[in-house]
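Batch queue: ligand-bound targets. Current item pairs a single chain with nicotinamide-adenine-dinucleotide. No template structures supplied; prediction is de novo from sequence plus SMILES. Inputs echoed for audit trail.
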Amino acid sequence: MATDLDVLVLGSGQAGVPLAARLAAAGRRVALVERGDLGGTCVNAGCTPTKTLIASARAAHVARTAGRLGIRAGEVQVDLGAAMDRKDAVVARWREGVRQRLEAAAPRLRLVHGPARFVAPREVEVAGERLAAPVVIVNVGARPAVAPVPGLDRVPFLTSTGALALRALPAHLVVLGGGYVGCELAQLFRRFGAGVTVIDPSPHLLAREDEAVSAALEEVFRREGIRLALGAAAEAVEGGAGAVRVRLAGGAVEEGSHLLVATGRRPNTDDLGCDAAGVALDRRGFVEVDARYCTSAEGVYAVGDAAGGPQFTHSAWDDHRILFDLLLGRGRRTRDDRLVPHVVFTDPQVGVVGLTEREARARGVPFELATLPYSAVARAVEVDEPDGVVRVLVDPRDERILGAAVVGAEGGELVHVLAALMQAGASARALVDMEMAHPTFCEGLQSAVMTLERFALRP
Ligand SMILES: Cc1cc2nc3c(=O)[nH]c(=O)nc-3n(C[C@H](O)[C@H](O)[C@H](O)COP(=O)(O)OP(=O)(O)OC[C@H]3O[C@@H](n4cnc5c(N)ncnc54)[C@H](O)[C@@H]3O)c2cc1C
Ligand SMILES: NC(=O)c1ccc[n+]([C@@H]2O[C@H](COP(=O)([O-])OP(=O)(O)OC[C@H]3O[C@@H](n4cnc5c(N)ncnc54)[C@H](O)[C@@H]3O)[C@@H](O)[C@H]2O)c1
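Prediction returned. Tokens below.
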């Protein structure tokens, strides 16, 4: 058994890699165990492949719609193989970067390939070898969860991982789930030329967002020819390769050539042997942690998707920063006191931070809501990107921003302006008083908050 370790990291995800590398640089003897490709979900099956392919799909969309700007691009042909090759090249580049980062940390960092399984407190077995350390960090991530719809055990279906590796375009993709994955991939495949239907039991796409946010996206999806079957649960799935049918509550049937199941993600803890280590899981299998990432087992910490909470790369990466400082005894931040923006990379993008209107009402938080359609922003009209809406919730007591959503071109970038003000505890008046360059999308943020009576220009 290897007993010369200070830290054992399980999983080379968005928290595990920087934690392992920085702890090694800080003098710790570290082993990092990875059972799959280096870099975890984000690099291999998540952010990188989706956003790279979305760029190709957008290029097709821009070429198809260029006529609106007086440019004739001719018939648009999508070379799916070339788009996939480009995606694979970017993924390989990022994965190689991870490998180099880990190798550069040798000899204090040792990379171990294989599935880790706890066999005792702070001790795992990997490919016949036992590794133990006084500190163990669980960063095992998550994988697609398949909703329990009758028939799914017999009908072939894709998850996001398979869909991102397709080499032939589905004639018609039926997507179960209108969340992040469902929305991003629905538009991606529609723009590549597939027919697409999205099914979700919620009455709106992106059901956690405010209705106005979802509605803005739904309008664009419908216009692009994406069929939305919302508000009815899938009751049964039938068919076989090349012909699938989904029966919905109420009797409607949605048909397609391929089925994509995008109904959330479950943690990779079921085969981790957490019992043997005294690591408690919640009823959905996520590792239970406190604000400082401590699990129920002394010396064992959990970060990233497997620890519950927001399933984002930026959250996992921030977990690494917070836990690194805590382990070195200098931490002030915890996982509970942070602002977590999120962006859905549809077109228009959906950037959100802080409270939604629905959450503010449910919590009884007083607010004033500023809204502005994107079509009122000069820049949006000039570049022919008028879809979307800006929504900012302002606290009437101190004029601080409580939350915001920017649906629109570059909405994922713009929301960070509002997030930065929130992080700084600044008043929304800062947006009003500053001089913004014209014509920019940012002017839309200023114009939006100036729709509130308290910030309006007076005669
Ligand atoms: C299609 C898709 C698109 C996404 N797009 C975005 C996006 O645009 N922005 C964003 O912020 N987030 C996005 N996400 C979410 C993001 O990918 C995850 O939140 C993030 O990767 C979580 O990182 P992590 O470190 O917790 O785990 P992961 O990155 O999943 O890494 C966990 C690692 O642990 C390994 N592992 C698991 N079990 C074991 C074991 N027993 N032994 C050894 N190794 C093990 C796995 O092989 C994996 O490499 C997307 C996800 C998907 C599926
Ligand atoms: N841009 C990003 O940051 C990004 C992109 C992709 C994924 N992610 C992360 O990955 C996670 C997983 O994404 P996801 O889209 O799989 O999950 P999600 O939780 O975002 O959405 C799942 C959707 O499936 C629906 N659903 C549940 N059961 C269903 C059923 N039986 N039939 C039809 N629909 C059903 C839900 O109503 C929900 O709308 C996200 O929560 C997010 O944290 C992030």
